[in-house]
Amino acid sequence: MNENPVTYWDEMKRHGYSRRDFLKFCTWMTAFIGVEASGVGKVVKAMETKPRIPVVWFHFQECTCCSESFIRSSHPIVADVILDKISLDYTETLQAAAGKQAEEALHSTMKKYKGEYLMLVEGSIPTEEDGVYCCIGGRTALDIVQEAAQNAKAIIAWGSCASNGCIQSSKPNPTGATPIHKIISGKPIINVPGCPPIAEVMAGTIVHLLAFDRIPQLDGLGRPKAFYSRRVHDTCYRRPNYDAGLFVNAFDDENAKRGYCLYKMGCRGPVTYNSCAVIKWNNGVSYPIQSGHGCIGCSEAHFWDNGPFYQHLASFPGFGIETTADNIGVVVGAATVAGVAAHAISTNIRKRKLIKEGIENGSVTEKKGGE
Amino acid sequence: MERVISERVYVWQLPVRLYHWINALCVAALAVTGYLIGRPLAVQSAAEASYSYWFGQIRFIHFVAAFIFFFNFLFRIYWGFAGNKFAQWRNFIIHRKSQVQEAVDVLKIDILQTQSKPLESVGHNSLAGFTYFITFLVFLFQCITGFGMYAAMSDSWLPHMFAWIVPLMGGDFAVRQWHHVMMWFFIIFSIIHVYLVFYHDYVEGRGIISSMAGGWKFIEKKK
């Protein structure tokens, strides 16, 4: 196996895909990862010549929705080739091996492909109580991650759990759920947030690594710019309604039927960076806003704590669920006006007294009109 | 009979007055448009989006006012070094014992109303100066968070200088939330500020209101 490394193309041929299918896949992927048309050749060449990268895929504090999303990628080759058949040396959910065999597979991969294997992590890592809240094979997730990361070529944090903590890390975060980038340093880490991330985004990230042998361009939060540089809001087909000030005011009103902007219904599109409005879901069928529901911002950090989902402004911490900054602002503003009014009244009383005293002792003169 | 003789002092230079009124207009425009952006009017309409752009225009006014506000603010910082002694940056930071004493006096005069001796300082009293220093910090915060959010839809270099705030605060949501909360600081500040100016004019009779128009204040002549 090592003497004659199997390439992706070899593997696809073995599974009966035609050259045409293969080229279609490459073209498609090139478009997704945001490379210009002339880059197609590069992707084709990489898939033809580069040996498959060994992959270990860990599952920690998560719901497996990332895997579920990935295997439903609209292009069959993605799931078939990248995930299922090629080089997934270890993954708790899909592997046939169990127990001792599985552990052995993991360790032999880590040893054999030292510094070459790609580490994919789905789920956050609990850190409270020495990480006992998530154990596999008698070891904590924390321990496993630290060992596996040591010799990994790069780490991809799948989904919001691994990239920003998602629901596990929302307040009060009893298990101390922590995203990968806060635990591991010194390794290239790609965050692919979303609950789950879009399958094509996941595939595109891997293809980019394969084709160009380096991590894609990342933004300030470690997300691939190709997929996370624009807000859902800026790419939303309902955006013209926003600019025109046409908003849905209730889910059952006329405006909702007309498909106006869901901004006032708490849509998180304006603060969420993702490709939902462009790539969409389920083979490009739809995405939340198209289906009449606001974005909940699942690819943004702390989205569970930024609630309620159906309110544009978050509730202000410490003031009950539906109290926003505006409610508090109005109360404080009214209190200020009341305070000012009281102050003005007392000032006026005092001044009259002062003037009266001044006139009596002669230090103030009062000019009468005409004098 | 003793009469108070007043003396005219040129306190606020033209650039300071211009700064003040441009700033006031910008803050008013920003607060009104900002509030609407956070909580748009509930219009029931059968219109097609292509016929109107009012929300876009409100946002446009907000952004234009923000740019003017920002450069006006930068100018004021410069004038804190170039201006006269009343405009100097030293007025805004309490760093001398006498300033602490004056701040206590102001509290006694303005809030507790237990004291009514006239203040020594002609320009900003030390507590007012310090309050303005805090507003400058809020200005800075609003500029950083505002441009930080704006960077996502802009190619120009200026907003991108502030893009680092978004990852630092954990995402656009938190940035927008705090940007919105600070709007209320401006509203509350304006209520108190306008009231106190009237109050001082009323009790001191030094012409503090008109001083921001003409630049002159009246002080008691020392004998």
Which helices and strands, and how do they pair?
The complex is a heterodimer of chains A (371) and B (223).
Chain A: H1 8-14, H2 19-32, H3 40-49, E1 55-59, H4 65-71, H5 76-86, E2 88-91, H6 99-112, E3 118-122, E4 125-126, E5 135-136, E6 139-140, H7 141-150, E7 154-158, H8 159-164, E8 177-178, E9 189-192, H9 199-212, H10 225-228, H11 232-235, H12 239-243, H13 254-257, H14 276-279, H15 325-361
Helix pairs in contact in A: 2-3, 3-9, 4-9
Chain B: E1 6-10, H1 14-38, H2 54-82, H3 97-112, H4 126-150, H5 157-160, H6 165-169, H7 172-204, H8 208-214, E2 216-220
Helix pairs in contact in B: 1-2, 1-7, 4-7
Poorly predicted regions of chain B are none
Rounded to an integer, what's the Rg of chain B over CA atoms?
21 Å
Oligomeric state of the chains? heterodimer
Beta-strand content bin of chain B: under 5%
- Our count of helices of chain B gives 8
How large, in whole angstroms, is the Cα Rg of chain A?
A: 29 Å
State the shape of chain A: elongated
Q: Using CB atoms under 8 Å apart, which protein chain pair has the greatest interface? A: A-B, 54 and 52 residues
Number of domains of chain A: 2
Total helical elements of chain A: 15
Give helix % range of chain B. Answer: 55-70%
Could you tell me the CATH topology label of the largest domain in chain A. Rossmann fold
Fraction in helix of chain A: 40-55%
CATH class assignment of chain B? Mainly Alpha
Q: H/E series of chain A, N to C?
A: HHHEHHEHEEEEHEHEEHHHHHHH
Q: How many strands in all of chain A?
A: 9
Question: What is the CATH C level class of the largest domain in chain A, in words?
Answer: Alpha Beta
What structural class do the secondary elements of chain A suggest?
alpha/beta
Q: What is the mean predicted local confidence, pLDDT of chain B?
A: 87
The low-confidence runs of chain A, each spanning 5 or more residues with pLDDT under 50, are none
